[in-house]
Amino acid sequence: LSTYDGYKVNFRDDTGQALGVVGPNYQVVQMSTAFATLDSFLGTGIEMYVKAGSYDGGAKFYIRAKLPGEIIFAGNENDRGEKYVDFLSSHDGSIALTTNIVAWRKICSNGLMGFKKLVGSKVKHTIHLNLDSIKHNLGILNQQFDLIQNLSNRMSVQPFDMQKLDTVLEN
What share of the chain is helix, strand, coil (3-state, %, to 5)? Predict the structure, then answer.
């Protein structure tokens, strides 16, 4: 980090390229710290890291990890989904530390897949940043899978006619 006119400039260590100008209270979170945070939250429950990378010259990064267990949609044992957590952040101040719980669902037999962000949490990059709060938020978000599965089960037994569909589509 370098300071310029009360702001901080983040630079890549390897190339010296400027990544972005941020406020004086900005706290850098490296990708390695993000992995360590996910490791400490997920412990032995993590099945695997699926994707990780950076973009915009290293100014932004993401991690996707598969969580253990499945979601069963509408009480149908043949309609299963997988659970993931996404971790997003940036070194240019454009993205808060973001954690999203994501469901993957096979939509049709030819393998077409659908990802759906279910819920998420954001924490600002400030000097008051507490990575334990991110782990706490992840725990709360992970509990949402059970709620979504229960809601799916309840919705699947409710009668639904064209009038209700029109109402839903209008809203």
Answer: 30, 40, 30
pTM of the model: 0.68
**How many CA atoms lie less than 13 Å away from 24 in the CB half-sphere?**
3
Side-chain-side CA neighbours of residue 60 (13 Å): 10
Taking the C-alpha atoms of residue 119 and residue 88, their distance in angstroms, rounded to an integer, is 14
Buried b (16+ CB within 10 A) or exposed e, 74-96: eeeeeeebbbbbbbbbbbbbebe
Helices (H) and strands (E) in the chain, counts: 3, 8
pLDDT of 29 higher than 80: yes
Q: Which two tokens stand for residue 99?
A: 């954690």
| 170, 96 contact by CB (below 8 A) | no
- Which of helix, strand or coil describes residue 40? helix
Separation of alpha carbons 25 and 93, rounded Å: 11
Report pLDDT digits (tens) over 56-98. 999 999 998 888 888 887 778 888 888 888 888 899 888 888 8
Copy the structure tokens of residue 109: 């037999």
Question: At 19, which helix (H) or strand (E)?
Answer: strand 18-22
